[in-house]
Design a protein that fits this description.
- It contains 5 helices and 11 strands, in the order βαβααβαβαβββββββ.
- With 190 residues, it is of the alpha/beta class.
- It has a single domain (12-189), classed as Rossmann fold, CATH 3.40.50.
- Strands 3-2-4-5-1-8-9-10-11 form a 9-stranded mixed beta sheet, with helices on both faces.
- Helix 4 (78-91) packs parallel to helix 5 (112-123).
Amino acid sequence: MKLWQTELDQSSVHLAVEGSCGGTTLGLQIAKQAISDGGRVLWASPEMPEAGRFSQIFSNISLSESSRFHAMNLVGNVDQALASLKKTATALPNVTLVVLDDYCPESGQIPSDVVDAVNKLITETSWTTLLISKGGVSMDSESPITARGRNKISADKVWLLTRPNSDSKRVLFTSESQTTLRLVEEGFIH
């Protein structure tokens, strides 16, 4: 078994997750991958990733490499926050990944100002953008959750991360595949 990785291809990915199934962990794992590949990461969220989990994921990254992880607090006016994020991302060298974790309310419709600001960010960028939010209840039998705002947010890809049981197994649905992952201390393996 090896750590799961994805292609960082300058696309935008809308990741909808079931509550407490590891969305932030998956984001941190992709951030570690970007840094290991020589890139720089901007992470924006109302709350910073839990320190213990961050340490587990980044345990084999050197101090100089981990200095290419930049966290920003995503609070207040969303337009201003994302404009500041974009300004920072274009000012820093070699940004290859921008992550917006918990960028919208946990339930209900995503507010239109958030949708507009996110769409503006992802259409004017040259890095991979990962949007992580809680999924909604699916009304069909094909998937257990749905990506809220799927038809309004202009992401290139929509992924779903689910927890079918109470164990460490997770399922990542992408448009190309359905991948069974297992959550371990170091991140997701397959």
